[in-house]
Amino acid sequence: MSFHWLVLLAAIAVEIIATAALKSVVSASWLVGVLPLLLIGLSFALLSVALRVIPMAVAYAVWEGLGIVGIAAAGHVLFGEHLTPGRMVALAAILAGIVLIEAGVGHGGGEEEGEALPSEGRHV
């Protein structure tokens, strides 16, 4: 697994933690309430690093899709939110969509993962 995929997985983990923290601090002081916002910012920063190599459609689908699945699991475990059969089917559909998007990106467009795009290589 490449460095950029590990960074993307870290971005997902931070997003899940941030969202769970956001629910936890609803009635806390404003100072504690800032922590989830900082974590969400960190998640976006990590996502931006992953986007240097991973195609945008794949990175965003994985980041958001696994984030949704992870948040649903965290809600079930930490907050007793129900995972009904219908919700589990919906989460499985999200995962299937991620696989389909990943399988379709980079085929025939010359943007294989790891290939430099014309805009890459220039540092601003």
Automatic annotation (TrEMBL):
Quaternary structure (record): Forms a complex with MdtI.
Family, similarity comment: Belongs to the drug/metabolite transporter (DMT) superfamily. Small multidrug resistance (SMR) (TC 2.A.7.1) family.
Annotated InterPro entries: EmrE-like, Small_drug/metabolite_transptr, Small_multidrug_res
Coiled coil: none
Swiss-Prot/TrEMBL keywords: Cell inner membrane, Cell membrane, Membrane, Transmembrane, Transmembrane helix
Stored Pfam families: Multi_Drug_Res
PANTHER family attached to this UniProt entry: SMR FAMILY PROTON-DEPENDENT DRUG EFFLUX TRANSPORTER SUGE, SPERMIDINE EXPORT PROTEIN MDTJ
Lineage per the UniProt record: Bacteria, Pseudomonadati, Pseudomonadota, Alphaproteobacteria, Hyphomicrobiales
Protein name: Spermidine export protein MdtJ
Main subcellular localisation: membrane
